[in-house]
Design a protein that fits this description.
This protein is of the alpha/beta class. It has two domains: 202 residues, P-loop containing nucleotide triphosphate hydrolases (Rossmann fold), CATH 3.40.50.300; 173 residues, P-loop containing nucleotide triphosphate hydrolases (Rossmann fold). The chain is built from 15 helices and 14 strands. It has a seven-stranded parallel β-sheet with strand order 3-4-2-5-6-1-7, sandwiched between helices. The chain has a seven-stranded mixed β-sheet with strand order 10-11-9-12-13-8-14. Helix 2 packs parallel to helix 3. The structure holds adenosine-5'-diphosphate (ADP) and magnesium ion (MG). The site of adenosine-5'-diphosphate has 17 residues, from helix 3.
Amino acid sequence: MKNFQDMGLPDQILETLEAMKFSQPTPIQVEAIPPALGGKDILGSAQTGTGKTAAFGIPLIAKLLANPQGSALVMTPTRELATQVLSQLRLMLGKSRNIKTALLIGGDSMSKQIRQIRDRPRIIVGTPGRINDHLDRGILKLKQADFLVLDETDRMLDAGFTVQIEKVMSFLAPQRQTLLFSATVSPNIARIAEKYLKDPIRISVSKSSAPAPNIKQDTIRVSDGAKYTSLLDSLNDRDGSIIVFVKTKHGTEKMAKRLSKEGHSADAIHGDLKQNKRDRVIASFRNKKYRILVATDVAARGLDIPHIEHVINYDLPQCAEDYVHRIGRTARAGATGSALSFITPGDRGKWSAIERLLNPGAKKDSKPKRSPRKRTSNAGPRGDVVPFRHDKKKKWSPSKRAA
Ligand code: ADP
Ligand code: MG
């Protein structure tokens, strides 16, 4: 079943997919949609950017159309992701825009959300903490919800939401269909799946820890002192939208200000900003109001902004898995993109962990490695670009300086 047309979808959904220019299902959609339409539970893992939202969104909407009593709950780890998932689902609703929805996320007006809940939404998207708030207050009832989606589940567990998720589960009726998606299926995810899924279809599309093959990955070995200047060079060498990851919340703001002073258009996002500010920062980036988004890992997962061409890891992520998620912000849905990581002498351990994750089969070099310090000094004050995993098709064009 390689076509949406063969999946037995209602005409209305087929028309909407056509309008959205979804001409072919992605591999995870090919595998997930038919069994989900058949009522099966699903445990799905796939690389980021592979179309998981529609993989659960299409069966979700098909189910709501087939059963006017039905309603669905989608849980995501971050507010941004919840917002994005709901707007994708709204698009997919097409003609059925009258189906009511609620967005239950932290940092957003309670009274607005309470109004949305009183309106009997048939699609609820939210983050576990806020959903529980509403459950605790007795405002939200989930006994009717017969379709549950857990998106980016590994991330929800990282964020310490395990208890919250289990609590939400206790409010749900057992006779529901559950779709669980996760980039990786760790023992913890497997435990959750075991507990809450009924005889699930297990779907895994390509090696889940692998980044999309169309991302060109490079590294720069650089000293701490030369890092910022080297970043400026890298920004000037690139065209198009860029996301720069840094370690700390404070660091994002400082960096965005500094870059703005240098004549770049930049803004910052991190978890301490008020929700409406976060929404504005993302919306402006989406609309290309500025070119460089400086972010903490809060923006690393799930965000789908197709025009991001470059991801720069100014600071390496604390956890190797996050590397894959960060660079997955580019090269969405088959586009190409590039990722550049700065490696200072102190980052050696972190980078080795990332390399091990990316090349699990690779043996350690038999030859002694040159020390990063030495490479740095060979590289001149600004460091040099060490290609990583060569991509023969596309080369860097260190041309066109950005205005
Ligand atoms: P994931 O959740 O797996 O990271 P998304 O669901 O956010 O990925 O999808 C990534 C991008 O691919 C989105 O821009 C989405 O609109 C697009 N997309 C998804 N499915 C299709 C399809 N069948 N055809 C074309 N584009 C698609
Ligand atoms: Mg997603």
